[in-house]
Amino acid sequence: MDVTAILKRAKKKKNSHLPDKADTLEYDLGSMLCIDGDFSVEKQDVQEEDLEEIIKKATLENTQLLLNKIFHLETSSEEAGVFVKLPHPTTKLPRTKKVPQPKKETRWEKFAKERGIRNKKKSRLVYDEEHGDWRPRYGSHKANNEINQWIIEKKDHEDLKGYEDPFIKMKNDKKKRVIQQRANQIQNTIRNEGGKITKSMNKNIQGILNSGHNKKKSKKQIDQILQMTQRSTASLGKFDKKLSGEPVFKSRQRRKFQPNIQQDAGVERKRDLNILDNVLTKDTSDLNLNKAVNRYLSMGRGSKKFRKNNARKGRKGGRGRGRK
Questions:
Q1: Is the distance from CB of 144 to CB of 132 less than 8 angstroms?
Q2: Residue range 27-38, pLDDT digits in tens
Q3: Residue spans with biased composition (Basic residues) (predicted)?
Q4: DSSP strand E in the chain: where?
């Protein structure tokens, strides 16, 4: 029995976390990164099947060395487990995007900075005396909303011209403030871009102008949106689950055209003979006489136009003309 081999195997089994290779790696423990500058494989010396195994073995050994370094750092035990406090990263990784530029000041911010005006941070909630609870300071459900009051007290300096409705005046004043706020936002946007209206800034302006608009769509627009959504899947809505009462839109039938490429002479001859037979035959079973008469009388403008013209001709007299 070879005792040396047995001891070697036992030692290897006991210290399985220690790889056989020498530790020549460069570490960045803050990023949990290690770099092996000595690893190199010549393709001509190694077969393709063995190359993957060599790379896997080197990766496993390097990962084990990295984990050994990490667990030699300061650790702390908590309920969720053992945590390691990583140092600050030393490797500078490139950014995917540009460094964000500082936001330019608005006109009011610039004025407040010059005059030394500081904004006092107000609390978000305000006590509403009418309802007896705390409500938001701003918004549709704000506290002490004057529009929801059933009576408005007239102030001494107010001049209600011609007994103007104070509720309507309050709503109009709010609309003016909203319009002025949007105009100020547009001015700040143009000023930040140096007075030039770019494509991206044009989208921002459109977003400012359209904000707050909740225009109801017509039934036709809703049906068009529903039809587009029904056909937005890969199966064009064929295998989608339908809701109860959801309308089913029929797909348009595509017109069939004869191919432009050269066909078999027999097929083309048979098609031409069928056309000639339909023209010369006296059998009118496939002919819609009502449709043909309406088409002839309406001069090709359709039966609706024909009925409309007949309805006009059938009227006698008119408004204000009296009976003839």
A1: no
A2: 999 888 998 888
A3: 302-324
A4: 26-28, 33-35, 75-78, 81-84, 125-128, 133-136
